[in-house]
Amino acid sequence: MTPALQQEIFKAALRCLLGLLLGSLFGYWLLGLGLGLMLYLVMHLRYLAALRKWFGAPKQVELPEPGGIWGEVFESLLTLQKRNRKRKKRLAAIVSEFQASTEALPDGAVVLGERGEIVWFNTAGRTLLGLRSPQDFGQRVANLVRHPTFTAYYADGDYSSEVEAPSPINTAVLLSYRIIPYGNGQRLLVVRDISDLRRLDTIRRDFVANASHELRTPLTVLRGYLDMMSADADGPLQPWTGPIHEMRAQAQRMEALIADLLKLARLEADGQQARLDVLDVPAMLLRIVEDAKAVSKGQHRFETEIAPDVQLLGRDVEIQSLFTNLIANACQYTPTGGIIRVRWWGDAEGAHYSVADTGIGISEKDLPRLTERFYRVDVGRSRASGGTGLGLSIVKHALERHEARLKIESEVGVGSTFTCHFPLHRVQHVVAAPPPVAQS
Ligand code: ADP
Predict the structure, then answer these.
(1) Do 289 and 400 belong to one domain?
(2) From the CB of 362, is ligand 1 less than 6 Å away?
(3) Whose CA is nearest to atom 19 of ligand 1?
(4) How does pLDDT run across 270-310, given as a tens digit for each residue?
């Protein structure tokens, strides 16, 4: 029991006693007691009324300072009010700081409610998406950004990546859209202008493609003359046989490089998904393995496990190029006597192509960088064997165009396995031809 409460009980008892005594003096002790209690009650009602008034307008009305239990209650209420005011001020400062910083962001930020309605957006959101304040608050974002790519991304619910689509107010501006779910069913839409980035990308790609194209003709001329000169090995050029041979090899390397650069440029330029031609992969693979055997000249043992009834929807040149690349790499980086195992199979997840070798393997630190252009684990070795360092980049791009993934597993000195996973909608199963019926 607090001292104020003890005091209050004492006061109540004293009033009752006084009333009782005064009442007894006049022979009405009960009336005296009742009067004492009533006076005590009136005092409480007065403070209750003051409290009620204060609750109605706490800023305008001042609370009395009566001391005792009421004084304590009023004091606590005022402290609570002060604390709340401070907290409110702090929160307001945080909110305005947050708004100021998001306003300064060059990226558009749009806060979406549970039903996808726009709750808030910053200035960049306004300029990039053409949102209007306050008309667009409460509007569903899917009704305002109607590009099919964004619509599909928004409806999909898988926001682990971002998508690119033009701005709804200016088709010349390319935007990257990313949705970040947070809190209780809320989402943050972040929009970035990537027009310059894409423009630079196109300039770089066109430059590489044009330069490679321009280099092709002079190189063909040089190569032609070098071929002629090396054919004349017994003539007056005999002392130059060595250098001519070296120049021919280098010219060949440059031709391979240019061919790979052009292939890459073509793959990058056709950014969208590859066409859906039905490819007879089993037949294609048997042909590629036969060619690889011829190149390997018996240095490697080939094992194949090819499902005859699984076909792929894709682009012939690209698939052939990526299949060949992986087998050629396996041959290149597997010493004589090694085994190269080529598999093609289908299951509930899609179709899969894998090339496993018992070669030199790749260390863990190199694995993530293998598909970068010109990345080689051992530059000298790759060059010596005619590698351009672009093979796996071409594989990666060709796979991306077929919505497929590349998985690389490897152990140094043991071997490597490159597996390509194609999605189910790119797979077609055919009924394998029945064995010929014996004629009687
Ligand atoms: P390159 O023309 O040099 O073979 P790639 O892009 O095809 O270029 O391969 C990149 C690098 O990856 C190669 O230089 C090589 O070091 C490594 N690599 C690729 N395939 C294999 C493999 N089957 N075994 C070991 N290393 C490999």
Answers:
(1) yes
(2) yes
(3) 329
(4) 766 767 889 999 999 999 999 999 999 999 999 999 999 99
